[in-house]
Amino acid sequence: MEVSALATKLRVAKETVRRDLHALEGHGLVRRTHGGAYPVESAGFETTLAVRTTRLVPQKSRIAAAAADLLGDAETVFVDEGFTPQLVAEALPRDRQLTVVTASLAVATALAEAEKIAVLLLGGRVRGSTMATVDHWTTRMLSDFVIDLAYVGANGISREYGLTTPDPAVSEVKAQAMRSARRRVFAGIHTKFGAVSFCRFAEVGDFESIVTDAGLPSAEAQRYSLLGPQVIRV
């Protein structure tokens, strides 16, 4: 929400809204941004896939294209749930043989008609908010694969706490994808950096590359790169 919109809606001064947002940020409930704030995703709050498709779409599209360029000679690929990974899937080349493993119904649908791409949809319980499968059926099936490259998303990434997500069931799928993959790429918008959610599934140093947008300051990108991965800002 923007400060001006909140002030109008609540019929209070903008300075009152700014003070309240500062207090909420201190409790870890929101992240401040220029002119407003957005909620931090936690065990009790997670945005839906439908909401994610409306936010920062141009930046997410650039990130996805840059992440897809890191495919290299990979023949088997894991694509995570979430809107940015979905865009990565859509940016994958259609002129070569690929096998894509995913828990995301949206990713599977996006690639189903690609003639040279074989899609393996992981079974399990479908979470309505993200339209992706979870639980032991999903992780058991995923554990049987050795994957060349995993494109992984997260609700938050920080140098101190690594990569996190609100739901333990989702965290287990992501953790298994990390274990199953030889190479790992994180693709995510700059607003995820510094955010911390409930369940940790990976460390920053577990990734070969981190792809984000130029909204992440170059100095902060350098701090992440010191932990191991190449950091690409687009």
UniProtKB/TrEMBL annotation:
Domain spans labelled HTH deoR-type: 1-39
Superkingdom in the source lineage: Bacteria
Gene Ontology molecular-function annotations: DNA-binding transcription factor activity
Matching SMART domains: DeoRC (SM01134), HTH_DEOR (SM00420)
Residue runs in coiled coils: none
InterPro entries for the chain: Carb_Metab_HTH_regulators (IPR050313), DeoR-like_C (IPR014036), DeoR_HTH (IPR001034), NagB/RpiA_transferase-like (IPR037171), WH_DNA-bd_sf (IPR036390)
SUPFAM superfamilies documented for this protein: NagB/RpiA/CoA transferase-like, Winged helix' DNA-binding domain
Keyword Oxidoreductase: no
Keyword Transcription regulation belongs to the record: yes
Keywords (A to Z) from UniProt: Repressor, Transcription, Transcription regulation
Record PANTHER family: GLYCEROL-3-PHOSPHATE REGULON REPRESSOR, HTH-TYPE TRANSCRIPTIONAL REGULATOR SRLR-RELATED
Role played: Repressor of the lactose catabolism operon. Galactose-6-phosphate is the inducer.
Entry protein name: Lactose phosphotransferase system repressor
Annotated source species: Streptomyces scopuliridis RB72
